[in-house]
Write a structure and sequence with these properties.
single chain; about 180 residues; mainly alpha; 7 helices; about 65% helix
Amino acid sequence: MSNSFRKALNVGMEQLVATVTPRIRPVLDTVATISYELSEAEYADKEVSEPWVQRLLHSVESNVAWLQPLMTANNYDSFVHLVIEFIVKRLEVIMMQKTFSQLGGLQLDRDSRALVSHFSSMTQRTVRDKFARLTQMATILNLEKVSEILDFWGENSGSMTWSLTPAEVRRVLGLREG
């Protein structure tokens, strides 16, 4: 593919994403009002239904999926990945402004997994890497004690490659209540 054609395709994809994301953003913005400082009862309630995840996925489906038959598989995958990048970046900003209980961290993990699972079914390419930072935030927020971060960080990270910087890890640790 020629360079000028690739550039034109990228510009077109970015314009297409720019027409879709304003329709998805209001659903994302409602996440800012949701508390992650959960008691056991609240956590159990959210296990039955987590409306923001479902509303977001419905919004994505209704604004994105109809384009699939109109695009090549590669172009549709690229489009979905650009939409995912928009969603994940917005969620990261929102989550960094919250306070989390340990159960709230568990809920964020569950919400992230639901998003990864759904988006994995929408594209042929892996989406896990797009959610790595959000997943790592959930892992940190899930820890019983702050000192447990040492089991996952540095020499103890094993095969896990950290997407969060040390400063971001400290910031996420600061989101924990208590």
